[in-house]
Amino acid sequence: MMTLGEMSKVSECSVTDCSYNQADACHAGAVTISGPAGHAGCATFIPLTIKGGFDEAAGAVGACQHVECAHNADLECGAPAIQVGLSGDTKADCLTFAAA
Description:
- By secondary structure, the protein is mainly beta.
- The protein has strands at 9-13, 21-22, 25-26, 31-34, 41-42, 61-64, 72-73, 76-77, 81-85, 93-94.
- It contains no helices and ten strands.
- Strands 1-9-10 form a three-stranded mixed β-sheet, with no helix packed on it. A three-stranded mixed β-sheet has the order 5-4-6, with no helix packed on it.
- A hairpin with a 7-residue loop joins strand 9 and strand 10.
């Protein structure tokens, strides 16, 4: 099992209209991956005109509600890093999602 210091990082976020995105990097302290089965959305996505988060933060996955993902163990992400981006007509998805 991973420890708090080993949380999966958000290696890239290409959702430029998210308030936590600064130069394709996530600056949220932790993101939550959620949504209906088969659609791993970034629930932390906030489309505001102001920028938020912490300058020194490199986003990490705080929780993953997709038990059907191959990387999910005990609602925690076990991937070394994830990518967040657009998938179809959605705003922000975990592109690292892999069906178990």
